[in-house]
Amino acid sequence: MKQYIIVLGLISEEATRSFFGIKRYAQVKFAFTINNISVNQHQMMFLTILLTIGGVIIAIIIGNPIINDLRREHWRRQPFSTRWQQFLEQNVPIYRHLPFLLKQQLQSHIQVFLAEKQFIGCGGLDITEEMKLTIAAQACLLLLNRNTLYYKDLSVILVYPTAFIVPREVKDNAGVYSQERQVLEGESWAIGKIILSWEDVKQDTDSFGSGANVVLHEFAHQLDHEQGSTNGVPLLDSKASYITWAKVFSQAYQQHCSKAARGESTVMDYYGAKNPAEFFAVATEVFFEKPRLLKDEYGQLYEQLRNYYHVDPSEWSRAT
Ligand SMILES: [Zn+2]
């Protein structure tokens, strides 16, 4: 009996990540056994080349996430300068309210975020360190305590000096489409980019606690899109979680729409009544900016957001 054993490759990567106490170990072994097959030298060589190419492709697919993890771990370990810490303490109010350990975690996330995402100034705006830190700090607030992908579909953040104008195709009640120009302070694209008005980012950051925060809003849309569509349902961990989420959010959304229609006072902006995706983004703003008020008005909704974001802002100092 002829037996050929072709070992294509052995890839052994052992990486220990102290972050969140997660230890990772990956070992990939490719081995193929061919029994009772009569092959000549050329066929054998062809088969070996074919399997080697296949093995390399598989190794790249499996190896990329491991390399990404190692690279991010390297960035997370970079020292966070005193100047940056002072800047956040003085200019990003929500940072001051965080418990010490969350501050440290946020600093690590900011390092990764700034290393991976590109900032581009538009409309004559020069991007400064202040702009990058202000945006990154609030974007990374949504990643705390989570096994995050760091907004995997996002690569570029475009920043305009003020609100920007975009053309939009709108449909009236008769179903007729027309073009109109909308003035926006922020916009999240499903793939690749977020657009922000620096004037509005600065204003919302300075008035933390007002309930409005364009950075939290647009980055919540990015999280919403992680499961493939932007519909108010982000990536959850189980079927049961999706069922509970759908029930609680549907109920709260209907209540909010009714309040908006009646002009009734509510902790959330009426803009959340536009559709479920906007409701999730607006609820995220209020969850971090007015957690106790949201908890009082929409207790179950608050609980779902607390489970999803893995933090409880109502326990942070000076929360309203
Ligand atoms: Zn929105």
Automatic annotation (TrEMBL):
This is Zinc-dependent peptidase. The keyword Transmembrane applies. Signal peptide: none annotated. It comes from the Bacteria. It comes from Thioploca ingrica. Keywords: Membrane, Transmembrane, Transmembrane helix. GO terms for molecular function: aminopeptidase activity; metallopeptidase activity. The keyword Amino-acid biosynthesis does not apply. CDD domains: Peptidase_M90_mtfA. The chain crosses the membrane at residues 44-67. InterPro entries: MetalloPept_cat_dom_sf, MtfA_fam, MtfA_N. GO terms for cellular component: cytosol.
